[in-house]
């Protein structure tokens, strides 16, 4: 994950055979991401990535944990004032955790 500027610099350095979009990145394209593939790694742009940084995330070691008491549980009905309706909330709580931080990295001072 990197900024638009860094991706532009790196894309011009790589040979055309090294940068391409593969079917492995089809899942990312389906949800609106665009990027290029370099040595079997998909590089995507994030507008919130700090300038001069590239974050290397190995998603094989990221897990999605759900809290057992908040796994899509409905609340009791609530009646709003001055309305002929009722409201219920669907509650969920969880966390995204990295089980192997040693396989993640970042590169700084890129230009």
For the sheet with most strands, the description reads: 3 strands, antiparallel
Strand order of the largest sheet: 1-2-3
Q: Tally the helices.
A: 2
The span between the termini is: 15 Å
Q: Determine the mean pLDDT.
A: 80
Q: What percent of the residues sit in helical stretches (DSSP H or I)?
A: 10-25%
* Percent of sequence in beta strands: 25-35%
- Give the overall form: elongated
Order of helices and strands: HEHEEEEEE
Low-confidence stretches: none
The oligomeric state of the chains shown is single chain
Structural class: mainly beta
Please describe the topology of this protein:
Elements: H1 4-13, E1 19-20, H2 26-30, E2 35-38, E3 41-44, E4 54-56, E5 62-74, E6 90-98, E7 105-107
Antiparallel strand pairs: 1-2, 2-3, 4-7, 5-6
Would you kindly provide a written description of the structure presented here, covering whatever features stand out?
By secondary structure, the protein is mostly beta strands. The chain has one domain (4-107). Helix content is 14%, strand content 34%. It contains 2 helices and 7 strands, in the order αβαββββββ. The strands form 3 sheets. Strands 1-2-3 form a 3-stranded antiparallel β-sheet, with no helix packed on it. It is elongated. The model has no long low-confidence stretch (mean pLDDT 80).
């Amino acid at each position: 994950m990197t900024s638009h500027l860094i991706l532009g610099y790196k894309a011009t350095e790589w040979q055309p055979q090294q940068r391409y979009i593969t079917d492995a990145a089809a899942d990312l394209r389906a949800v609106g991401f665009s990027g290029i593939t370099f040595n079997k790694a998909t590089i995507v742009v994030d507008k919130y990535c700090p300038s001069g940084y590239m974050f290397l995330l190995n998603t094989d070691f990221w897990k999605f944990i759900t809290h057992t008491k908040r796994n899509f549980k409905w609340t009791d009905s609530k009646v709003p004032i001055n309305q002929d309706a009722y409201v219920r909330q669907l509650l969920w709580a969880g966390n995204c955790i990295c089980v192997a931080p040693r396989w993640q990295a970042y590169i700084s001072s890129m230009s």
